[in-house]
Amino acid sequence: MDSPEWTNEPDLASRRVGGSVVWANDELFAERENLIKPSRPEFQPWSFGHKGQIYDGWETRRRREPGSDQAIVRLGLPGVVSGVVVDTAFFTGNYPPFASVEAVAVDGYPSPDELSALDWTTLVEKSPLKGDSENSFQVSSSRRWTHVRLTIHPDGGVARFRVHGTPVADPRLLDLGSLDLAALENGARVVAASNMFYSSPSNLISPGFAAVMGEGWETARRRDDGNDWVVIALAGAGLPRLAELDTSHFKGNAPGWASLSGSVDGETWFEVLPRTRLQPDTRHRFPVEQPRQLTHLRLDIYPDGGMARLRLHGALTDEGRAAFTARFEEAR
Known about the structure:
The protein has helices at 112-116, 318-330; strands spanning 20-24, 48-49, 52-53, 58-59, 69-87, 98-104, 121-128, 134-138, 144-153, 157-158, 160-167, 179-180, 189-193, 217-218, 228-246, 257-263, 270-277, 283-287, 294-302, 306-307, 309-316. The protein is mostly beta strands.
């Protein structure tokens, strides 16, 4: 079965973008932290510990009294949620028959007790689950959330919990005169790409450094005369000052050259960085010699290959600041 379109959006809860499982009422058989691991679940038969079969997921004990089990996740990227996936991979006789999901938006850094005392909004009503399956639930909400709570009814195991959506940055926590215009955490997003055979192009604009090659964007080998490319809608209209093209971990498969183009409508393009030679496994930094306002950035790599990160440092224009702030206020 094909996955819903919204699963192509970033996982706001992933450990890779700074998510954390801040609390669970029970994790006797398997740790709650496994829920947001970016890797796919794994299973090793006949791998037993002191508490039974070792599972790559979150598993609670069998309930002998009424109730349900819960885990609270702080989103690494607060934002508008499009849908959630409750993945019960490898849980067959011990998966929860039902699950529900709630969310809350809060400033600061509350403790688990403070979070539990808040009024939560239901995103997914109590719904049936299938074992050893990716259970997908679309969410209809235009609000920005900072935390989500997964409830399993009554107990059991969940391998992964994915929260897909659109990041919405808080302008109060940023210097809008100096930021990464292309950062996912600031609201930028990939809108088109020529190829995503090995990995998602959204990895290019994810937070932090890539720890391994698989955390970047890599295309298939081209057998024609073309080249690969990706288009990013920036966090807002801005003036770029510095571009960073990072090929870290890409050694025999880094692009030979790259160029950057800008646009104010996503259709007509002008040069930001001319076609420039790249080195493998290297962070390249290039000043933008003649900055012009842009809302979209296009990266062309020649002819193919992989890149770990793409950064575009600069300042939002007055128009960009207004739109950036309005996006946050409208989602509160």
